[in-house]
Design a protein that fits this description.
With 250 residues, this protein is of the alpha/beta class. The chain has helices spanning 14-26, 44-50, 53-60, 66-83, 103-111, 159-168, 176-180, 183-186, 212-217, 226-245, and strands at 3-9, 32-35, 89-94, 97-99, 118-120, 129-134, 140-144, 154-158, 190-194, 198-200.
Length: 250
C-alpha cells in the first residue's frame, strides 16, 4: 500500500512547517505541504460555496469563526491533492503536532489490515474505546463509544473515504473535527487509536483558530441552541449504535 504524508500549513507560518518537517524526518517521513486557507482572507464567494452558516448555527449552536472555516476548507484541499495522486492512503497532519520515532511503522501496521476507512491518530479526549484490534507496541484500534473526540490534527484515510467525504462534507455545517468522525452519517469505517500516535508540539501548539474567550463569545443564546441540543442527543445514540454494531462495513 502506498501512503502519502501531507501537512496543512499557512503561508505565514514557516516556523510551524520547519518544526513538523524536522520531527517527521526523524520518523523517516517526507511531508508534502498543502497550503492552508486563511479563513479571514478568503473571498466571500469561495466561503459561501462551502459554508452553510444557517446550518452551522442550527447544528453547532454558534457563529462560525474564520479559523473554523479555514481549517475545514484546508482539509478539503488536502483531499483534492490526495485524490489527484496515485497513493492508496494518506496521513494528513496539521502543522502543530509532533510524530514520534515509531509513527511510520505504527501507521503501516494499521494500514496492513482492511478494517478501516479513516483512523484518527490524535484526540482531545477519548473516554471509552471498543477495541477491535491490538497494535504492535501495545496500542489498540477500535471505535469510540462517546464523542466528539476532538482534534483533526492527524488521521489516516483511504481513497474510498476521501472520495465520500469530499462530496458529503460540503456544505459545512459543523466544525471539521466534529464532522470528520461521523462514520454513521457518511457510511465509512471510522476507527480510533489508543494511545495517540502524535502529540502537540510545545513550540507550535497555540491554536490559530481562536482562543477560548473568542470561541465562547461566538456561542448563541441558550434558547437558540435547542436545535443543537436535539442534534447532539441524536448523535449520541447514533454513535452508540455504530460502535455496538462494530461498523465492519458502514
Amino acid at each position: 500500500m502506498k501512503i502519502v504524508y501531507y501537512v496543512i500549513n499557512l503561508d505565514r507560518s514557516p516556523d510551524r512547517l520547519a518544526a513538523i518537517s524536522a520531527d517527521a524526518a526523524l520518523s523517516g517521513l517526507t511531508l508534502q505541504r498543502v497550503p492552508a486557507v486563511d479563513g479571514a482572507a478568503a473571498p466571500v464567494q469561495e466561503r459561501d460555496a462551502v459554508l452553510d452558516e444557517a446550518g452551522f448555527r442550527r447544528l453547532h449552536g454558534k457563529v462560525p469563526m474564520d479559523g473554523e472555516y479555514g481549517c475545514y476548507a484546508s482539509h478539503l484541499g488536502a483531499f483534492d491533492d490526495f485524490l489527484a495522486s496515485d497513493a492508496d492512503a494518506a496521513v494528513i497532519f496539521e502543522d502543530d503536532v509532533r510524530p514520534g520515532p515509531g509513527f511510520r511503522s505504527a501507521v503501516e501496521a494499521i494500514a496492513a489490515v482492511d478494517d478501516w476507512d479513516l483512523v484518527k491518530l490524535m484526540h482531545h479526549r477519548l473516554p471509552a474505546l471498543r477495541a477491535r484490534r491490538r497494535l504492535p507496541g501495545g496500542g489498540e484500534l477500535g471505535l469510540a463509544w462517546f464523542g466528539p473526540t476532538g482534534s483533526s490534527a492527524c488521521y489516516l484515510i483511504n481513497r474510498r473515504a476521501a472520495k465520500i467525504l469530499r462530496e458529503q462534507l460540503v456544505p459545512m455545517r459543523l466544525p471539521y473535527d466534529v464532522a470528520l468522525e461521523r462514520g454513521w452519517a457518511h457510511g465509512i469505517r471510522v476507527r480510533h487509536v489508543r494511545p495517540d500516535l502524535v502529540a502537540s508540539n510545545p513550540a507550535t501548539k497555540k491554536s490559530l483558530i481562536g482562543g477560548t474567550k473568542k470561541y465562547a463569545a461566538a456561542r448563541l443564546a441558550p434558547w437558540r441552541r435547542l436545535t443543537t441540543l436535539a442534534f447532539r442527543t441524536s448523535e449520541l445514540f447514533r454513535r452508540g449504535i455504530y460502535a455496538a454494531r462494530g461498523a465492519d462495513r458502514a
